[in-house]
Amino acid sequence: MILNEDQSIFNPYLVSASLTLVVLLFTWVYWNKRPPNSPPGSNGIPLLGAILSLTSFPQIALTKLGKKYGPIYMVYFGNTAVVVLETPEIAHEAFAKNDCFNDRPQTIPTLCSGKGLIMINASDFQREQRQFNLHALREFGMGRKKLEGRLVDVSRQLCKTIDDLCGNSGTSKPFPINDMIYQSISSVISYIIFNHDVTVDDKEFDVLLKEMTEPKKENVLSGILMFAPKLKYLPFFSTNWRKSEEFRDKLEEKIKGEVLSHQKSHDRNNPRDIIDCFLNEMNNFSSSKSSGQIDKSCDQNDEMNRSYSWQPSSSFTIGQLISSVRDLFMAGTETTASTICWIILFLSHYQDVQEKMQKEIDEVLGQSGVPSMSITEKLPHVRAVLQEVSRLRPSAPLSLPHMASRDAILNGYVIPKGAIILTNIWGIQHDESRWPEPEKFLPERHLDNDGKFNTSSNWMIFNVGLRNCLGQKLAKMELFIVTISLFQKFSFALPPGTTPDMEGESVVTLRPRHFDLIATRR
Ligand code: HEM
């Protein structure tokens, strides 16, 4: 048989279709190859991996994958390996018992400048800075009467604003509370760092911070970049990345101004805030270089001194001061304020729980008693409410990303160097084997048979290990004192006929959408 031209076995369409098939087959085989003994999971769609699961609630998508693959699994976002931890035990093994899973991927442009506290890799530099800031937060914040006083003042101011809205009738019209809470919480951290409220005294500062945390499209994109950094090379995301860097630079310029004015009025024997304390360390370094002496003036009378053992070194520089202040401010506002908003929303929706909590507050403090951390034992129901709301709506549902600094074994699996490691805090706190009926709001699950408050290692909103939340003591104090102050003075309700949105929105944190409230003076 003679083949005419059209029937040739070298038909170009046939050849290119076959070649495409071969290329696709190779891509598929190559894409689906997994490193030997890596955690279970799927490689997902070639080139994209599981990236499409990063919907508006990535924590929920990842929890579903956890049910399929088990307590530790590995997926790909683009070509980046992402290991997800679904139990506190594995998180503990990774972050407390190991030193190779505590680096950070460079995925949050507003916090990644090679310096600071949050996104720097684990190193002597990082440990020294973490230790210094833990100590400085204690000195100017945690455990100090001074901070309790500040918190009480801030809460009083907040109550005064709400009281004005209640007017003569004693009941307000519906009003949004979110911005008031954000303002109060940023004021607390602002005093600890700058010894004044920068968001009130400097409007530009305030606008910048709001721009960076508002739930607008750009910030949602930043949330996605946090888990899939390689997307920053795509046109849509690259603009977003650049804009975030510009914001960071502007914010750092503002902080620099504050640092300069601190330098001018600095008295080493009378540190006013974290900036002064840091400046003392810088001076210590230069004087210890010349004299060999270490003078810890901000450390006088400090009962925590025993755990305070860093040596002044070159990690104390102006650049590092500016970046660490930026990180404390960013980390210390959004998370705590969102949690307080969730608490108010849940209690407004569940009126019976609110009444029970108020009864307890009334018995311990009455209408005029001043809240303080010394009465936590007497308020188990309040603590149970705080615990349950933050279990249901953790403000950092996937924690912050960690990164493997080398190939290493975790729970019997090989984790490749450079893999991003996420702790699925949401999944752990919604795991029905640990929390029966996990979706239900049941504060009493945190009380024992005698009505005493019960802690559980399955509650882990601050994550665990060597990079866990540096501000957790401060955060607990803020949640406790602000909540008590508000519910001691007011009852809150949602406007009749409205259906609350209890899901919220994920920006980088999980926060409630704006909601209106009615306050009634008690
Ligand atoms: C309810 C409030 C808060 C929650 C839920 C929260 C949660 C977290 C989480 C999950 C992490 C990541 C831990 C990890 O990667 O292992 C973290 C880190 C951090 N948090 Fe918080 N946080 C809160 C409040 C605060 C406050 C008030 C401050 C500071 C004043 C703060 C400062 C930091 C810093 C500096 C880090 C980075 C620590 C490091 O990398 O070594 N946080 N936080």
TrEMBL record:
PROSITE patterns to which the protein is assigned, alphabetical: CYTOCHROME_P450
Lineage top rank: taxon: Eukaryota
InterPro entries xref list: Cyt_P450 (IPR001128), Cyt_P450_CS (IPR017972), Cyt_P450_E_grp-I (IPR002401), Cyt_P450_sf (IPR036396), Cytochrome_P450_fam2 (IPR050182)
A Pfam family this chain is assigned to: p450
Transmembrane segments: 12-31
Known cofactor(s): heme
SUPFAM superfamilies cross-referenced by the UniProt entry: Cytochrome P450 (SSF48264)
Keyword tags: Heme, Iron, Membrane, Metal-binding, Monooxygenase, Oxidoreductase, Transmembrane, Transmembrane helix
Family of the protein in this entry: Belongs to the cytochrome P450 family.
PANTHER family attached to this UniProt entry: CYTOCHROME P450 2U1, CYTOCHROME P450 508A4-RELATED
UniProt name for this protein: Cytochrome P450
